[in-house]
Task: structure prediction
Amino acid sequence: ELDGRLLRARLTLARGRRSEARELAADLAAEARAKGFGLIAERCAAIGGRIDRSAPPSRHDG
Result:
């Protein structure tokens, strides 16, 4: 089940829906950590990092 939800977060990101993908990944990471699935939690964090790196610069970034 957790792997399926991870795939869903990745597909959501691939479709360009960053905020939804970030939310899915964060929720899944919290649940994975609580259940002792550290590897899945790390993969969710990687999705979040990818989203942050691909985000356009904000007005406050100079």
User: Anything to note?
Assistant: The helical segments are 2-14, 18-34, 38-54. The chain has a mean pLDDT of 85.
